[in-house]
Specification:
There is one protein chain. With 307 residues, the protein is of the alpha/beta class. It contains 15 helices and 4 strands. Helix content is 60%, strand content 7%. It is globular, with a radius of gyration of 21 Å. It has 2 domains: 120 residues, Serine Threonine Protein Phosphatase 5, Tetratricopeptide repeat, CATH 1.25.40; 156 residues, 2-Layer Sandwich (GMP Synthetase, Chain A, domain 3).
Length: 307
């Protein structure tokens, strides 16, 4: 049941969201963040059959990733609509057996098979607030992100990643880091930040594609083609200018209490912390091309294109 009657503009925006996330899920079918957003978007426009079908995919994605508590919750939601769904009942039985086995492991002090750890970590973090965050904490060796200075943009981490992926030489990346650091120092007014990824790739689309592909594999962020998305100016400006223009963070959609933000450097942990502190929403992060984010921000803020 819809919470309220959607205006034509709201309906159009949600339909656009649906189209976008259907494309994302074609290449990343087990991205449970996108599945959750798509499920809710279907429900908002009255496509209950598609919403239920997506709920099944979501339950399977949770189960396959070892997030058994979340998978169980999703199964219970489905069973409210279809009490006798055989495959869901079978999955629920399998989950309960695994959780019971995990409980026995804890009781006997033998939790060494990874099952309990996967269940507790994914189960307590919730749906979208922290699952991908956890992936980045692992990348950064559990650094204390809350104590980081906002001057740290994560460029050094990104630089190391690009060298490890053999996309650039150390000298090339080091020079680019220094150039970007100077460009981003004391940005005046509504000035757009420079992107290290953009600077390193220098219009080389093949190198950029390889870098983004590697970042997706490492961070598990979904990719969003922002260049084809009609960004709502009001949503994009929900963050202060120093986080949008100054960090190239682009809020591009809002579904219920979840706000979707595109970035081009997922290693900017200090910036992402500042975003979470600025918003009373669950934040989901997506990767996008630096040029697409810059172009969208220019449109949102009505800025002239950079030379």
């Amino acid at each position: 049941m819809l919470e309220h009657t959607l205006s034509e503009e709201e309906h159009s925006q949600i339909v656009q969201t649906i189209e976008m996330f259907e494309v994302i899920l074609q290449t990343q079918p087990d991205d449970y963040q996108s599945l959750e957003i798509l499920k809710e978007a279907y429900a908002k426009v009255g496509r209950t059959t598609d919403s239920l079908k997506t709920s099944r995919r979501l339950a399977e994605a949770y189960f396959n990733s070892g997030s058994y508590t979340l998978a169980m919750q999703e199964c219970e939601v489905i069973l409210l609509r279809e009490p006798n769904a055989p495959e869901i009942l079978a999955m629920l039985g399998d989950i309960e057996s695994r959780l019971q086995a995990a409980g026995h492991q804890i009781a006997t002090g033998g939790s060494k098979n990874g099952l309990v750890a996967a269940t507790s970590v994914n189960g307590t973090n919730g749906l979208t607030h922290g699952v991908q965050e956890g992936a980045l904490v692992d990348i950064q060796s559990g650094s204390n992100r809350h104590g980081q200075n906002l001057q740290d943009r994560g460029d050094e981490h990104l630089a190391k990643f690009l060298v490890m992926q053999q996309l650039c030489s150390e000298d090339e990346v080091s020079q680019a880091v220094e150039t970007v650091k100077q460009l981003n120092k004391n940005l005046p007014g509504q000035a757009l930040a420079a992107s290290l990824l953009d600077k390193v790739c220098q219009q080389d689309s093949d190198k950029l594609d390889a870098a983004i592909s590697g970042l997706i594999d490492r961070t598990k962020f979904a990719y969003v083609p922002i260049e084809y998305y009609d960004v709502d100016r009001q949503i994009a400006r929900m963050l202060p200018d120093n986080l949008t223009l100054g960090r190239l963070f682009l809020p591009f959609d809002l579904i219920s209490r979840t706000i979707m933000i595109a970035c081009c450097n997922p290693f900017d942990a200090a910036g992402r912390d500042a975003v979470q502190q600025s918003l009373d929403y669950t934040v989901t992060w997506y990767l996008a091309r630096p040029s697409a984010i810059i172009k969208a921000l220019q449109d949102v803020y009505r800025l002239e294109s950079r030379a």
